[in-house]
Amino acid sequence: MDTQLLRRYARLIAVTGGGLRPGQDVVIRAGLDQPDFTLMLAEECYAAGAARVEVEWEYPPLQKLDYEYLGAEALGEVRAWQLAKLRYRADTLPVMLYLESADPDALAGIDQLKRAEAMRLRWAVTKPISDEMENRYQWCIAAVPGEAWARKVFPGLAPADAVERLWEAILRCSRAYEGDPAENWARHNAFLAERCAKLNALGLVRLEYRSANGTELSVGLIPEALFLGGAETNPVNGAAYNPNIPSEEVYVTPRAGEAEGIVYATRPLSSRGVLIEDFWIRFENGRAVDCGARKNEEALRALIAMDEGSAMLGECALVPYMSPIRESGLMFFNTLFDENAACHLALGRGYTSNIRDYGKYTLEELRALGVNDSMVHEDFMIGSADLSVTGVTASGERIPIFTGGGWAL
């Protein structure tokens, strides 16, 4: 891939994605297969005024080895130095940049119950600090093409050709292939803000989903919740940042415990190194009470049973069926991309930042309003060419939001 294109993409991630301001520290998390682009991203961070850039490397085969040889208690242990590092980051609030490149099936075959128990043990220790950091730092998730991932998306190509094709797809979907990426994102953010303004003016209290595939779901909304999309603002320093590159969604935090019906996924879910395919979830009294999947059903059931809040919804996101990612014709097998090709829901933690004037509430008060709490937040795609979404107001007025998979406003 052309070096100048990659450098512009790196700059986009650092400045538009992370919202990096001079004097801020940066932490980059990347796979071992991405040393060159990680170096380029670090250079762009320093060029933008970063005080210090640290890189944390991840390697899924080593994680899989741990799951094979260690018990849940050892996997879930948070050592003193790890807790001290998290504490330091809560105090200094560095910009967090995450580069996704891993094989979607990297952790296939691990013991899902052991993984769930290890996550619960870690979360019991780290949750107080994570809660303290919520909404107070800038972060961005973006993607680079790992070879195993590229071969899954383009199985008929030689590895080098598959990586090149995936690079092009990532850059195009991220609005970084043609024109000025920063200007492209300024226009895109303005469009998403206009969509949000229209939705927020409606006073919706419920969303109803219908599709010919069997989806029939009603989800309650929090009256104080706002639809958001695109750029966000760090209330600590006023920096604007884009948490996801790419992003096509307009999303809202639903009220925990208010969901009824059944929903069918329309794309696979890549969840922590496992690919869950052809699945459905049924909700009663706000909770997922049953589910099924053609592949990796045990991973889906483990996800739903992770903690008290993992069986409830934490996000409703609206994405036109004919989004740029859908129009690429590709199945990315990666939630960052596939969630932006279709309307989606999320199991688990809800976003407190979606609540109007959220800064005036304590975290406990935000939970009391109906923002779901969980150690997980897993998006799964439900959008289809015939999906309809109807908004219902407090007075009972029914307003078409989506018809035929696209905006009806």
Secondary structure blueprint with pairings:
Elements: H1 3-17, E1 25-31, H2 35-47, E2 52-58, H3 60-69, H4 72-75, H5 80-92, E3 95-100, H6 112-133, E4 139-143, H7 147-153, H8 159-173, H9 181-200, E5 204-210, E6 216-221, E7 232-233, E8 240-241, E9 250-252, E10 254-264, E11 269-271, E12 274-284, E13 287-295, H10 297-304, E14 313-318, H11 324-327, H12 335-338, E15 344-348, H13 363-369, E16 377-381, E17 388-393, E18 398-403, E19 406-407
Parallel strand pairs: 1-2, 1-3, 3-4
Antiparallel strand pairs: 5-6, 5-17, 6-10, 7-8, 9-14, 10-12, 11-12, 12-13, 14-15, 15-16, 17-18, 18-19
Helix pairs in contact: 1-2, 5-6, 7-8
Unreliable stretches: none
Number of helices: 13
Determine the N-to-C terminus distance: 39 Å
Give a count of the beta strands, DSSP E runs of length 2 or more: 19
Query: Strand percentage, roughly?
Result: 25-35%
User: What Rg is obtained from the alpha carbons, in whole angstroms?
Assistant: 20 Å
Q: Average pLDDT, to the nearest integer? A: 95
Could you say which structural class the secondary elements and strand pairing correspond to?
alpha+beta
Portion in helices:
25-40%
Shape label: globular
Characterize the largest beta sheet: strand count, sense, and whether it forms a barrel.
9 strands, antiparallel
